[in-house]
Amino acid sequence: MTEKNTTFPKNFLWGGAVAANQCEGAYLTDGKGLSPVDVLPDAAHGRWDVLANPKLAMEKTFDFYPSHESIDFYHRYKEDLALMAEMGFKTFRTSICWARIFPNGDDQAPNEAGLKFYDDLFDECLKHGMEPLITINHFDTPIALMKNYGGWKNRQLIDFYLNYCDVIFKRYKDKVKYWLTFNEINMLLHIPFFGGGIDIVGEEHPEQIKYQAAHHQLVASAKATQLAHEINPDFKIGCMLAAGTTYPNTCNPKDVWAALEADREGYFFIDVQARGQYPSYSKRFFKENNIQLELAEGDLEVLKNHPVDFISFSYYSSRLTSADPEVNQKTEGNVFASLKNPYLEASEWGWQIDPLGLRTTMNAIYDRYQKPLFIVENGLGAVDQVEADGSINDDYRIDYLREHVREMGEAIEDGVECWGYTPWGCIDLVSAGSGEMKKRYGFIYVDRDNDGNGTLARSKKKSFDWYQKVIGSNGAEID
Description:
two-stranded parallel ribbon; 16 helices; GH; 12 strands; globular; 8-stranded parallel β-barrel; TIM Barrel; Glyco_hydro_1; alpha/beta; 6-phospho-beta-glucosidase; GH_1_N_CS; beta-glucosidase activity; 11% strand
């Protein structure tokens, strides 16, 4: 085992991440309402097509819905958290399902059974010494709000969201310190059904709808930050970006400019949440794309006065772009279109593996905002093989994570302030995009296949022991 001098702060928050909609199951248990994933089929029945056209989800009945049982974390969380505690987790990232608290989103009173579930979950985390890191809306706007109001394109959702925030902030004010307002908020532009509970199919001006919905979410995030600090001044409120630096395909200045514009698309959201105002470049973008935001009185003031405390982000890969449309043939399988980088290997799902890109991304974000960072998603989706003796030798996952942890440490040495690291899918769960189980990220294997078959039994992978040593040494032992 190779030793290296630790570059990680003494109280660095090592842990792992999941999301309610991808692991809890129990889709109508204890009064829960429908969430977007609850109407999505599996990969074999066109999940991506339904994501792109939400009307299909409402009009069709499918044979199998992966989220309905998922990995049954709702009933098995004590067992799962005990395994995470065995690895040494200092923090556990999950989300609250909005539809468990307000089944229709606009209910007069919250659902007590849903509130109690999260009381019990957070108590169990704290019993094991794990700080809950909670996403308020992780692709989880209640379906009823989409049906009855059109989702986040309707300004009324700000009030419904704030009512939800008021309830959970007060209920868990002594149990949860770290909150994220929206998961991968920039995904609203790419998967509006997930990101905002909106359907843009057939709309005359979809960009207008998406950016108006974005404005509503940004105002809601700022008002939630204000509310949180009023309820408990010790709360730390963060935003969350689907991040990954975009490289120019060549040193042609046009390629360099194309890469800058690609990164700005995501930074747009964080510029508002972290700096408190719309960036200067947005004026030209709105003008040239005929986007006219409807602002209410006081919107700009609340954005200015209530920026987030820290910036969290997901990082799976870097991206590559060209200004030449003939060159710009996109890779398949990625939400963010990208050229294939000849210097990088790719995962089985086409994500290009770039550990140094994490260091680059961390430095770029920190240089831009000078706020603490939190890496709340990172990992390798892969098909795992269970051997005859029950072992799962996922050395490929260890290799991926080792090099990313190494580069994270280098970024901290560069001067980047980083609070913690929660690799994605620390226990196997249902893929958000494809609905698959075979696309596994976890340190903990769950016996379930793409068709919903299996015992749901949990078992440790080789990476379980590796990550346990990483945490136990505070990042000093990664080899």
